[in-house]
Amino acid sequence: MAKTEETGRVDEPVARLGELRRERGGGWPAVGALAAGTFTVVTSEMLPVGLLTPIGRDLRISDGTAGLTVTVTGLVAAVAAPLLTLLVARRDRRMVLTVLMAMLAAANLLASYAPNVAVLLVARVLVGLGMGGVWAIAAGLAVRLVPQRRVAAATSLVFSGVAAASVLGVPAGAFIGELGGWRASFAAMAAVCGVVAVAMAVLLPPLPAAGPVRLGGVLRLFRLASVRTGLLLVALLVTGHFTAYTYVRPVLEEVAGAGAGQISTLLLAFGVAGLVGNFAAGAGAARSPRGTLLLICGVLAGAVLLLPVLGRDAGVPGAATAVAVWGLAYGGVSVSTQTWLMASAPGAREAASALFVAVFNGAIALGALTGGRAADGWGVVGVMWLGGALAAGALVTAGTGRAPGGAEEG
Asked: Residue limits of the Major facilitator superfamily (MFS) profile domain (predicted)?
């Protein structure tokens, strides 16, 4: 029987999780469906990144205002992740994921027809609702689908969807936008969401709730020092990354002199490197969460700070080097921080995932908003300096904060 650290009483959700582990089903096809889900939600969220210039031109708004299409999605997802986890506490996870993915399809279709920025922002609110729920639920399901010895690899595969969104999703969206306009990119994303919804309905086994998720149980996780450290790491790293990355296209165009065709190639290089970083970090974080995150924070900070310097002095080749190294580091952020939090709260995986997704997407929104204000006030180079400074703050946190596995403080 599982017991809580603080009270010694039987923790029924942990005991129920143990029963569900013995009922594993679905295997790797189901894990693949979850990876497709994370790919789809992250692509949907980040699609405007590669389309900021044409969206702004078509709707006659500034780059900073166009960046709100990322900000609003992240804010809504941050709120939706814990709330939806509570609202669907007893619902079968397969059904919930399928419904949320169908909603994402409808949201992207609405975005493709948006006549003005107000309608586009409504569509992006719906994207935030769907992605917050999908990510929070999918993030902790690998343990229920494969044998214990395969859980680390399965978790890395689920989070590979995040990196694959950069490899395929965002560059493909930018490419489609060049061919058929930014609206065609959103329409194509709606079709992909529909296909993934069907795949989830077919490939996922029945996934009854591991136990009731209550608000008090979620909030009690803040008592764990390593959980607090992990969430602060997520906040600093992701805010720093998206402060810079949301405006990477203007940086590459104005500082390095990259053309429209080169932008897609550079974003593809970022994504390919990120896919490699995801699996490397997944393996490393399973052995040493702190060591892996120290490396990620240091490399990410250096790459972001050096991008405008290399872009100015060495043009597109220099910028490409910085972008690839940046992608390698950021590709490992999701899986390594999630591993940190799962190790910090092994008996409350879904609650920890909800907090992870809430902070992650709140940081995306904050990063996009902060970057927009910096871009409008300081210019695009100032955006890079700010993003790099936040990543450096994460490096200090990783080195000094409480890691999972030690005695926890109240």
From this structure: 30-406
Return the bridge partners of 3, or none.
10
User: How high does pLDDT run on average in the chain?
Assistant: 83
Q: Which residue range(s) make up the domain with 296?
A: 22-400
Q: Residues 140-157: what's their mean pLDDT? A: 82
- Give the number of domains in the chain: 1
pLDDT band at 337 (very low <50, low <70, confident <90, very high): very high
What is the rounded CA–CA span in Å between residue 280 and residue 274?
Answer: 10
315, two tokens: 């043009």
Give CA–CA dist 125/380, Å, rounded: 27
Residues 19-30 as b or e (16 or more Cβ within 10 Å = b): eeeeebebeeeb
Q: In the beta sheet, which residues pair with residue 207?
A: none
Q: How does pLDDT run across 265-288, given as a tens digit for each residue? A: 887 788 889 889 988 998 888 888
DSSP string, 328-341: HHHTTHHHHHHHHH
* Average pLDDT for 286-314: 91
- Position 4 in a domain: no
Q: What is the CATH number of the domain that holds 194?
A: 1.20.1250.20
